[in-house]
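Quick one: Flavodoxin from Nibrella viscosa, structure tokens please.
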Amino acid sequence: MKAIAEFIHKHVRGTLVALELVMPYPENSRATVEQVARENETGFLPPLKTRIDNIKAYDVIFVGFPTWGLQSQIININL
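--- reply ---
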């Protein structure tokens, strides 16, 4: 993910921000996949620790994330 973010940044500039969760996913990849599957089934959106105070100042926002179980994650950002 970081390499892709840096590639986009190189071409469009802007600000790079790593989104962190309040409760990070487990280090064990199998446990992470299982947790994400449960979250997808229940519609749970893990809260973000990262805050972007001036998010309305951006015209375009690229959000990159891994996919688990071939399902994209939903990002809940309150504007």
